[in-house]
Automatic annotation (TrEMBL):
It comes from Musca domestica (House fly). Residues 62-81 are annotated as: Disordered. Keywords: Coiled coil, Cytoplasm, Lipid transport, Transport. It is found in: Cytoplasm. Residues 62-75 have a biased composition (Polar residues). CDD domains: START_STARD11-like. Residues 118-325 form the START domain. This is Ceramide transfer protein isoform X2. Gene3D superfamilies: 3.30.530.20.
Length: 331
């Protein structure tokens, strides 16, 4: 298989039986990282090629499809649903609601806390223009579960637009490069879903999946100075469903993630004014704690996180900017 042979080229391994993830693997940590890095590069190259071909061959169809979606779901034609969207009102009768509400409020509080004060252990690991990323090194049973907190400032989009594309499943395959399959196990309400998400295997690591609920919410209290609105998306692993892996072989990821976004306008301007995208700034706080399950070398995992998290945030925000540049502003 060409991709596998490409990935193992140059590795000094005596037995292929130990070329797998696990505590007994003889694959050195640096070679584990090199192999995963090569696999991720190949996945990203394939995705970039698919996007390029799609744009070349279907530009007019994509434009029409996006316009239809915007008129139906983004611009409030269904006023009853739109008025309730982001309030959680339609999910409150569900068995998961108490957990969803509690975790969302906890994560919002966590996202609003600063970093670097009071010796709380935050270390900056990426500083690239508007993107700043911090981590705290933590392990559970020998597995890296470093909490991450990232800050970004994005021009030309609103908080709701940013959260819309992070939340809605129909867009996820266009910006999440490692995604193989995203199954909606239950649509609890328009702003709350239960997902089983399967990721592509990146050799020599085992294939992984995640079972989690996702909730998008508009925040109406405690807005930062200068913010005209705040939206969040919170994802959290759950045992509510006992859904097995699609192929029966995946290692399950356990995660808690929040993307908190605020819209800022120039001084003196309001949402009721005639605005252009030049007037919009979205301030993003992204927090995650991910237990990847299984086993992988700590140093290799941290090296992969350091490389992949900034790329993810830049790729996702660029995707949203591109999707919204010719569309009506959505608050």
């Amino acid at each position: 298989m060409p991709s596998i042979s490409h990935m193992i080229k140059g590795l000094k391994i005596k037995s292929k039986d130990v070329l797998v993830e696990g505590p007994h693997s003889t694959l050195p940590e640096d070679e584990f990282f090199d192999a995963v890095e090569t696999g991720l590069d190949k996945i990203e190259e394939d995705m970039q090629l698919r996007v390029k071909l799609k744009l070349q061959s279907q530009q007019s169809q994509i434009s029409t499809h996006n316009s239809v979606n915007a008129s139906a779901t983004e611009n409030g034609e269904n006023d009853d649903v739109d008025a309730e969207f982001g309030t959680g009102a339609l999910a409150r009768s569900h068995d998961l609601w108490e957990e969803i509400d509690r975790v969302c409020l906890e994560q919002l509080h966590y996202a609003r806390q600063g970093v670097g004060q009071d010796g709380n252990g935050w270390q900056i690991f990426a500083d690239e223009g508007e993107i700043k990323m911090y981590k705290r090194e933590e392990e559970v049973n020998g597995m890296v579960v470093d909490p991450l907190k990232a800050y970004h400032s994005v021009k030309g989009v609103t908080a709701r637009e940013m959260c819309h594309y992070f939340f809605m499943p129909e867009f996820r395959n266009e910006w999440e490069t490692t995604l193989e399959d995203c199954t909606i196990l239950e649509k609890i309400s328009p702003d709350t879903y239960l997902f089983l998400q399967t990721h592509k295997r990146v050799w020599p690591a085992s294939q992984r999946d995640a079972l989690f609920w996702s909730h998008m919410r508009k925040i109406t209290d405690g807005l930062d100075e200068g913010a005209v609105d705040t939206w969040i998306v919170c994802n959290n692993s759950t045992n509510y469903s006992t859904q097995e892996s699609k192929n029966g072989k995946c290692v399950r990821i356990f995660l808690t993630v929040i993307m908190a976004c605020q819209t800022h306008l120039p001084p003196g301007k309001t949402k009721g004014d005639k605005l252009t995208r030049d007037d919009l700034t979205c301030k993003v706080t992204y927090c995650s704690v991910v237990n990847p399950g299984g086993w992988a070398p700590a140093s290799a995992l941290r090296a992969i996180y350091k490389r992949e998290y900034p790329k993810f945030l830049k790729r996702f925000t660029s995707y949203v900017i591109d999707q919204r540049k010719d569309q009506p502003i959505m608050f």
